[in-house]
Design brief:
This protein is globular. The protein has helices at about 1-10, 20-25, 35-45, 80-90, 105-120, 135-145; strands at about 25-30, 125-130, 160-165, 175-180. It contains 6 helices and 4 strands; from the N terminus they run H-H-E-H-H-H-E-H-E-E.
Length: about 200
């Protein structure tokens, strides 16, 4: 199931993921989220390349608790679940469900991970590719460059998008690019919900 999800994620974009050898050569470490979708995507991207893969538990997506697998139209009689709508459209109103993680908890987890990563002396001269999920990556970007609005930075990130963060000798991360895609947007099976 997980492998099929990863392949489905890549199906409409695989032909656009021709990563040049020199670019792949700079990746010394690859750290995916422990969720199978991110790990399988990482394995597809790195196929045939000699790049170590280290699963990083802190890159896991936001915990949704009792909302795991629930759709926005899960309210009474198939109506909209307003809290799930708020998750995307009004994140400041979203209330973490039972067993779930709040935006504040997610943001702290990702900011702590980013701080730890930026201060690792053994990684100072390395390029690291992180594979994670929309909420987790957005929380990390927010720790570097706080958004004008609340959380989503103008919209949910596109599937298979990437962001670039540069960390200098001072261990301070700088956001270079965000939510970039390597494929024509009109050829995606779905696109990110944009709020701007």
């Amino acid at each position: 199931f997980c492998e099929e999800l990863a392949k489905q994620e890549m199906d409409s974009t695989t032909r656009y993921f021709d990563i040049p050898g020199p670019v792949m050569d700079v990746y010394r470490k690859f750290r995916p989220s422990p969720l199978c979708r991110a790990r399988q995507t990482a394995e597809l991207v790195l196929a045939g390349r000699d790049v170590p893969l280290y699963v990083e538990p802190r890159l896991i997506e936001m915990a949704f608790g009792v909302y795991e697998g629930v759709t926005a139209n899960s309210g009474p009689g198939g109506t909209l679940n307003q809290n799930l709508v708020d998750f995307i459209c009004h994140a400041e109103r979203y209330q973490a469900p039972e067993g779930g993680e709040s935006f504040e908890e997610l943001s702290k987890r990702m900011a702590d991970y980013l701080f730890d990563l930026c201060h690792r002396k053994d990684l100072a001269d390395k390029t690291i590719l992180l594979a994670s999920h929309g909420g987790a990556i957005t929380a990390m970007l927010n720790a570097i460059d706080p958004p004008e609005g609340f959380f989503w930075r103008g919209g949910v990130p596109y599937n298979c998008s990437y962001s670039i963060i540069d960390v200098g000798e001072d261990c301070v991360p700088v956001l270079v690019a965000e939510n970039q895609i390597c494929y024509p947007l009109e050829q995606t099976k779905s696109s990110a919900l944009r709020l701007d």
